[in-house]
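User: Teach me something about this protein's shape.
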Amino acid sequence: MAGIERTAVIGAGVMGGAIAAHLANAGVATLLLDVKSDGRPSAIAEKAIARMRTADPPPFMSRAAHLRVTPGNIDDDLGRLAKTDLVIEAVVEDLAVKHDLYERIEKLRKAGSLVASNTSTLPLAALVEGRSAGFRRDFVITHFFNPPRYMRLLELVVGPETRREAAALIADFADRRLGKGVVRGHDTPGFIANRIGAFWLQCALGEALDRGLTVEAADAVMGRPVGFPKTGVFGLCDLVGLDLMLGVDASLAARLPPDDPYQRVRRDLPLVRTLVARGYTGRKGKGGFYRLRRDGGTRVKEAIDLATGEYRTAERPRVEGVEWARSGGVRALVAQDDAAGAYAWAVLSRTIAYAAGRVPEIADEIEAVDRAMRLGYNWSAGPFELADRIGVDDLARRLAEAGVEAPPMLARAVASGGFYRVHEGRRQYLSCAGDYRDVPRPEGTLGLAEIKLASAPLAANGSASLWDLGDGVACLEIHTKMNTIDADVLAMMGRAVEIVPRAHRALVVYNEGQHFSAGFNLGLALFAANIAAWPMIEEMVAQGQKVYRALKYAPFPVVAAPSGLALGGGCEILLHADAVQAHAESYIGLVETGVGVIPAWGGCTALVARFAADPRRPRGPMPPVVAAFETIGLAKVARSAFEARALGFLRPSDGITFNRDRLLADAKALALQLAADYRPPEPATLRLPGPSGKAALALALGDLRHKGVATEHDETVAGALAEVLTGGPEADPIDTLPEDRVMALERAAFARLIRTAPTLARLEHMLETGKPLRN
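Assistant: First, the predicted structure itself:
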């Protein structure tokens, strides 16, 4: 078969519905089926689609994506499988139910189409029992992680009779179209991530109970200090669902042999069973280990007392030893002779030892296990990478002192010097055969980390670096905290404009951090304001405009490649780039009004110019001003690259990449395409309405103030924004203004606002809480 263009998902529950939504995000026409109901036959699937359209976080990436999902029911619509390339089964984890469904699918499916189960507990061998040879050849397990839009891991399990072409097709589809990190697992209980993750959870819960730790204290240790998500272990259980946690445990306990270490670490948890019975299943229920209680108009976070089972006000614990992880990493944490160090050591050492003993049982190599835990559990490092950070010698020695025999893989790592190494500029892992092999990278991908291992930067300072991607393309990497923009970043942008033309044809702005850029460094701005260093702030604004315009009009194409947050000054980079290749999960916006200022690195000018040039929008001086005023004034943030297109932050021609691992390669290819016959753009001229337009915006703003929607300082900030967007007092709708005149208005408005007490209060509040202040 040529490819996968039409899919069906059977089972419209939480998981099946979300899988269907993500298939629709990728542009795939999807049939969503569930059992027939009274009244409207397809009501269950219809309700699932309606629920997902209002869910938060949203399963759909755009308002129109749900139109690609067609609801139906199994009794009336199963015949549509004759036109479907891939069927994903996501029904209840009951072997008899699945067998009955597969018998019906086999009679109706298109010849050669693929059938996949999203099971997380049942073995493939049992699923295909009794099916024809042709069905078995086309059958795989595709284990998505919840929520499918946001969790990158897809565990792919194939049977001994599965066609190689079928496995390759589904892997390529999941990689390129759905953006998944595909990890091949074996047909073993829990596959990879849940096998290791369930052991870790059981161990962490049990050790916390035995040591008398509060849920907050345990999460403070078993979270960011060891490179795990900030939810920690108890918060993660709430996120996953306590009922699901019990289900996974029961499945593993039933399927694993009696001598598996999981059987020794697991324990009955009466408190958890009681919570589930009372409807406290976690975040999807009334609460779990944590809950939110309304007290008047406020919400109070509560945590459960593990000893009594009663809720109390949650506290922010001060756990001795956690600070060591911030300076010395996990190695320093587990070395501490205190409660935090002992807890971290007890959990991590046993988890690493368990993982080392499961290879090659659950996966061919250790690298697959580490990748599965990074992608499926959001660990910053997998168990074998953690072992290297702790030190395999110390790990094996301390295990031996505790009477625990080192698994063969750990002993092999001790003899070899670690599970990973860098050799001749390439990162390599220790194979099960005992030699080191290059960490695999999917065909067609490009990694900045690998380039950095194998080469020196073209230029670098403490905040940014310039790298050679090959083929005449350079890469500007920002590497500050949250990739915020400071004077050194601006300086490196300026150097890039000078360096790139010497030996390169194009520039890509990209980094492999969690976020592209959170914008201007607010801490620096607040510090300068507090010491009244107004010239310093004004110089930063002027310098930002200068280098952004230099990139825009450089004699080479500039392609921005965002992922994660691209806010404020980060968004302005995109607006000045010749083209953008965005990761689908890009959250883009001009949010400056939330801290009491306006975009001043050309963001106002660029956005209103883009709206004015867009043939799909109403013509005339006022419509683009109104659109830009609403977008900037309300600090709108796109929650996907598709929403960014709708808001104007991306052009219709800008590219969207689903797989984060493919973003740099796609951006480089786009840059080379633009470089083939590149000519810099002409400076824009704008036809703006002037004072009459500002007066119209002021009337609308005054109405919002009168209704209590806008505060006094909101009105001040919006008034400054209106003056910039309408072109200032000298603008006339029959004349045009050069863009540098409008950018001068940006600088002047920013300088006025930054000096006001309410703006300084907003800056300080944002830095302290991460949330905007309405004053």
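Now, about its shape. The chain has four domains: 6-184, 193-430, 448-527+546-591+637-669, 593-633+682-775. The longest strand covers residues 298-304. If you'd like, I can walk through any region in more detail.
User: That's plenty for now, thanks!
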